[in-house]
Design brief:
single chain, 5-stranded mixed β-barrel, 6 helices, 9 strands
Amino acid sequence: MANLEFSLPENFGEHDPKIGLVLGSGLGDFVDALTDTQQIAYTDISGLPKSGVEGHAGQLHLGKLGGVEIAVAQGRVHVYEGWSARDTAAMIRLFDQLGIKTVILTNAAGIVNANFKPGRWMLISDHLNLARESPLTGSPTFIDQTEVYSRELREMLRTEAAEISSSHLFEGVYAWVNGPEYETPAEVRMLRSLGADAVGMSTVPEAIQARALRMRVVGLSCLTNYGAGLSGQPLNHAEVVEVGKHAAGELFTLLESAVPAMVEI
Ligand code: HPA
């Protein structure tokens, strides 16, 4: 047998997940609505980095959503904790090992485009890798990035969102910064002039890794707060987690109908 990067515990049952979902800060409650779940602590999967940030629990859930088998990563590790970009994308390589071909990456993000509203979701159309780190460092993988976030799946999600939800799904460019400190107002203005609509500290290395493994990628940002200087209010992590918690229900409603459609196309 091939040398696998990760080994799963022996009690890992019969699972054939079609979709891999990574939950961002504050979105952990999402897993409560899955059915037929088996839960595995990251600490029981050898090869996987363990997360230590509040709001990132560190559990892999295998269950069903809208009748489709799904693997949900509750908690991720970040470059700001000292992990390499390759480490932060380990979950994607585990998804690949499980045979998953489509990943949904979610995160909490600050608003850079002042027309967007806190508490709403933004479909990621493209990204800016301003952390200038890559999960592919060390392997000369010159992958194409013309369409990191599947156009086809975005169209489908837009249609689903319009049908089921009263609140608007924004769409735009996500800028990845290292953090852990939030931006200064000058940095938020700079991000806007570079073409960003939202800013956050995750997701991009996972998206790059997923594309390198030829997976289809969907990115969804929960817009938890206005970026520094846009509202006059100071930013804090507790608020980011709190807004995420409220928005998790809306994500669930959207994905419950979108996930079955996703495996059809
Ligand atoms: N900046 C960066 N990352 C974030 C923010 C922000 O304002 N909000 C949530 N994650």
